Every structure is written in C-alpha cells, then in structure tokens.
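Workshop exercise sheet. Pairs work together: one partner reads the sequence aloud, the other fills in the structure field after running the prediction. Swap roles for the next sheet.
Pair: D.N. / O.F.
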Amino acid sequence: MLLDELSAQGPSNLQHLIITHNLPGPGLTVPPDCPFRVSEILNAKPQGFGANHNKAFQHCSTPFFGVMNPDLDHLPNNLWSRLVELATPAPIGLAYPVLLNLDGTVQDSEREVPTPLSLLKRYTHRPPVPRRDWANAACWVLRREVWQQLGGFDEGYFLYCEDVDFCLRVQLAGLELKRADVRMTHHAQRTSHRQWRYVSLHLRSLWRLWTTPTLYRYLWRLRKTGPVRLPDMGR
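Structure field:
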C-alpha cells in the first residue's frame, strides 16, 4: 500500500499527505508513527481528476505541491528530496520521475502532444517522436506559486488530458518540465484502451483539448522555438 511505503521512508520533504476518496468506502488506517500529516477528503459523488486535486490543494499550506497516483510502487528513498530540488529554481514549472512498467522497462510517460496526426502515428505503430511536450501526472512536484499562477488544473477535463493541458500551459508561461534521475514502478491500467466508459471519457477530453486555445498557442510556439528533445530514459 502506498501510504505504508511512504510512511516507512521516515522523515522527508513530504509534510502533508491529502488523500481523496472519490467513491464511498472505508477510511484509512494511518500508521501511529507516520512521519507526516495525513488528511482525508470524502466525496459525496465522484469528481474529476483535476477537480479533486484543485480541492485538495486548497487544504495544503506547504511551499511545494505534489500530485501522486495510488498505483505507484518501489519509491526511491531520495524521491522527495530530488523532486523538490529540481522543482525549486524559478525557470522550472514542475519535476517528475522516470516511471517503469511492471517488467522494469521504461514507461512512455513522456510524450508528444496528442494531435490527431501524432495519435495516428502512435496507433499505426510508427516510431515514436523523440520529443517531450508533456509528462504523465502520476507523480509531479511543483512550487505553490506555479500552481497559483496557472490556476491549477482545468476542471473542464473530467479524466484524461488534464495533465497534457497543464504541461502545455506551464511551457506557455515560460517555464520548463524537468525529469528527475529517480525511478519508480507505475501500475498503469490503460483502461482507456479497454472499457467503453473510459474510451468515451478519453475521446471527450481529446475533443476539449483540440477545441481550446491552449493547444494552438502551444503549437504556434513550437514553430518558433522547436520541440524539447531529451536523451532516452534508458532501461
């Protein structure tokens, strides 16, 4: 369980963990020696990924905010210190780790912006473009002022693409995305590929992304600056 693994790491930069229960269910049992504060939010009805995080951060007074999925495993001991270190300089908008699949291979958590053309290439198994427009929000750390400057997640996205939109807005604000040299396992379910409800949500989010100004402002910026190209994350 992620809470137990975080607690076992002992004192770190993690000061306050806010857990949102998006569906009715029992609360958590917090270890008595937990080195950080734990708060729980119980939703009366399910809310979107962005809305849940925006609400959670209203209860957070720390100088850094973190986004963390519950399906993460094998967290390195220097996770928080490294992410906070990288997210501290003013030019950095957010820092994120390298995510691994269950078999230890590197997950495709850094991707090209999902335009219709890039998705066509992806699903026809053409070679991936060696560039990074956005990074999966399974684990992020960013300064409080960055979150406030950008107004948090766009709650018009219920699920999917809210991390794409946020990363694009980070870069449009003149800030950078920074990959950390720390790794962890992400139990990605890929439900948007198998269950119709999630396929539908994914399509709705893509349509919103394609019909809002953020994407076109970002693509216009790329014509002037060129894409960010990163070294391969390796194996």
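Discussion prompt: Strands lie at 16-21, 37-42, 64-68, 72-73, 92-100, 110-111, 134-135, 139-143, 176-186. What would you look at next?
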